[in-house]
Amino acid sequence: MIRMLSRILLPGAVLALASGCVTSTVDQMVFNKPTEDMSNASVVILGRRHASDYDTEPDFVECVGEHIADGDGRIHVIDELEFINTFYPWFEPRTAPLRVTDLERLMRQPPVAEKLAALKTEYMIWLDGSTERTDSAGSMTCGIGPGGGGCFGFGTWGDDAKYEATIWDFTDRAEVGRISTTASGQSYMPAVVIPIPIIAPVQGTACDGIGDQLLQFLSSGE
Amino acid sequence: MSGSMTSAPEQASLRWLALLLAMASLAACGPAEVVVKGNFPAPLMQKIPITLGVWYDDAFAHHEFFEEAKTKTESDWLVRTGEAQVQMWDTLLDGMFTRVVHMSARPGPGQMNPTVDAVLIPQVEELQYAIPAQTSVKVYEIWMRYKLQLVTTGGNPIADWTMTAYGKTPTAFLQTDQEAVNLAAVMALRDAGANFATTFTKVPAVQAFLQRKLGTPGEAAP
Questions:
Q1: How many domains does chain A have?
Q2: What domain range includes position A34?
Q3: How confident is the model over A6-27, as pLDDT tens digits?
Q4: Is B168 in Cβ contact with A111 (below 8 Å)?
Q5: Residue A211 and residue A163: Cα distance in Å, rounded?
Q6: CATH number of the domain that A173 lies in?
Q7: For residue B180, which phi and psi values (nearest 5 degrees)?
Q8: Are A92 and B191 inside 8 Å of each other by CB?
Q9: Min CA distance, B156 vs chain A (Å)?
Q10: Long-range contacts of A113-117 (CB under 8 A, 24+ apart)
């Protein structure tokens, strides 16, 4: 009985322990919350990709979108790639509006204005930032022979995530909020025959942090 | 009695194995080759009401870029962009102008060509790429410079200008060098399309041509 319990509990305990620690902070500044619910409107979340040294990762944008859609089924989140392709070439890194006032000029293109109206886009949320590897140390050697293979060593690395979400109201053509989050964590990989990754979910924590605040904002309408 | 130790099917298998090994060893000596492939969306914009002819010369339609390895550890690179160039420009021009006609020959005096308002001749003047082995940064980049000519069917110049395009793959995670270079090239082609679509009517000589043709400087981009 004890053996059976240990077989069940041990992998669970290993899995529970096999994630590194992450510290994160979230700041928000919201000016105008929605006055109506989002059941008849849609939201698009886009990543900023105009900087030369970093791009907001598409999987982070997708993660925040899924977090919002899973949290409130009434909110329709438009897929980023689908939106960018539909509105080509107006949301490419070279042409994407950087300020909310740029929307006015974009809306002067009748096909763009018509398409946006058809999609009932109420909010456009821009995510700007990235997750970067800060340091890494340690070494690991792996070998394989006729009797089997294995690894030996220890590795560690740190990740830092920094993101900011800017919320644009399409109806009022105004910026209505900013949410920023930072997260950092250290991951470890000890290896005695089998490498055991103990990964700090830095990007996932940043996604949850910013996703929760956006969800709260978008769900606050009557 | 034959002294052979293998049966006929075994010998055939051995021959195939030898052939495969020989091919594999030859392939290892060849350059890293990328035939750029991607999907390019049609632009969402008001069409310019002219009939545009387009002429892709052989160098453009079969454009490729070859770079010899500088060290023994690097491999040669062959990047074929011609097919993707034609695909992108065809899609872009179809969405930008009311009618697009492919010329049967390079415009010039006495050439038999369909009647059009003007003919666009795009050319790739220069292409550069960078992979992490060269930059020590985990980013794949493609940079292109186009020479664009707008001429009459008789070959007389209307406008002549250059345009740059840039694309990068933010991460090489789970991608081969070839896949990453392909993605960077697709991003560069999208950027070329975005740059052309938003600046075509702003080129002074093009503006003057459209003014003469339509009485307005065309649908200027925002």
A1: 1
A2: 22-130+161-180+201-218
A3: 554 455 445 445 577 889 888 8
A4: no
A5: 11
A6: 3.40.50
A7: -70, -40
A8: yes
A9: 30
A10: A115/A86, A115/A87, A115/B44, A116/A170
